[in-house]
Amino acid sequence: MSWPDLDLPTAQDVHAAAERLRGIAHRTPVLRSSTADAMLGAQVFFKCESLQRSGSFKFRGAYNALAQLSPEQRERGVLTFSAGNHAQAIALAARMLDMPALVVMPHDALSSKMAAARAYGAQVVTYDPLTEDREAISHKLSKERGMVLVPPSDHFDVIAGQGTAALELIDEVPRLDVLFVGVGGGGLLAGSLLATKDALPLCRVYGVEPEVANDGQQSLASGEIVEIALPRSTIADGARATALSPMAFDIIQQSVEGIVTASDPQLMEAMRFFAERMKIVVEPTGALALAGARHSGCDIRGTRVGIIVSGGNVDLARYARFLAD
Q1: What's the mean pLDDT in 255-284?
Q2: Which of 31, 94, 232, 235 has the most CB atoms around its CB within 10 Å?
Q3: Model pLDDT for residues 6-63, shown as the tens digit of each residue
């Protein structure tokens, strides 16, 4: 299903976002691992957004959106809802642009992510994800306070900004055959598709979801957005959105090769690989792309494979348990 009335970003908007982010967002490294090459039977290129400002790719979309607000909008401030990474990104971008920020987070969000959002200067409002609707709460607060609502995925400038991670990867590795991208609300996958299909139309792009939160996979199969109710028992806290956003889904269904899934044990295995072999800290959601590339059964042997490592915001005690299991 397509929404013809939606104003969708294009590859040109991703390029414009890249110019806006130049000198602001980190140009994160692309790392290699001979062990990963042997494990996957491919040449593997890791785009390490775990080393991005605020600890994830989310900073790209947040700053790109906030930087375009009018002086009047900046004075009123910005509001969002998020389990953690987008909250931190909005909080940091708002601080950099000298504007107030409020983030609506589930009461059981990782304490480290909630603390980071507060440390960046945002006001945090919590809710119960089992009994309350975060979007309804956010719209109500936005109306009451006059703040601009910038959601995590269903936003033109957020999607365009997220696509700059893939754009940088392609700039550094100009020939990719396959790209794997983690999926929550779909903003990163949508932006990555815009950037990749413009520069490398033959590159196969796969989204990767937790196997118990495969609403995107189901949506592609049915041709319309499928929503999966909470609770979702997965360690990938950044991929617990109940459905793809309409804007992201419209882009994804047009050109994605497919959406595959990874189990929690596979995510823990990928996190251990990053820690032991590549010496980088990656959160469970950030490990989705590698887990999908390794276990999905996609035909990648002998190809050049891009992996977007989407985030590295971990609760240290929880992270240690994952590595020890």
Answers
A1: 97
A2: 94
A3: 799 999 999 999 999 999 999 999 999 999 999 999 999 999 999 999 999 999 999 9
CB 208 within 8 A of CB 218: no
Mean pLDDT of 181-196: 97
**CA gap 135, 310 in Å, rounded:** 24
- Is residue 310 over pLDDT 50? yes
Query: Is pLDDT above 70 for 3?
Result: no
> Among residues 308, 303, 47, 289, which one has the least CA distance to residue 175?
303
Q: 160-176 burial by CB neighbour count: b if 16+ within 10 A, else e? A: bbbbbbbbbbbeebeeb
Give CA separation, 319 vs 8, 31, 46, 197, in Å. Answer: 37, 22, 21, 35
Which pLDDT score is estimated for 1?
Answer: 45
- The mean per-residue pLDDT over the stretch 137-148 comes to 95
Query: Residues 105, 84: contact at Cβ < 8 Å?
Result: yes
Per the structure block, which two tokens stand in for 268? 């823990």
pLDDT tens, position by position, 157-177: 999 999 999 999 999 998 999
- Give the closest residue to 159 by CA, choosing from 76, 244, 220, 55: 244
Strand ranges of the sheet holding 304-309, from the earlier edge strand across to the other edge: 30-31, 43-48, 304-309, 178-182, 204-210, 258-262
For the chain, what's the residue count?
325
Residues linked to residue 48 through DSSP beta bridges, in sequence order: 309
Amino acid identity, position 255: S
Question: Of 206, 189, 213, 211, which is closest to residue 266 (Cα–Cα)?
Answer: 211
Task: Report the 3 state secondary structure along 127-157.
Answer: ECCCCCCHHHHHHHHHHHHCCEECCCCCCHH
Give whole-number Cα distances, 299 to 180, 197, 200, 294, in Å: 12, 19, 18, 10
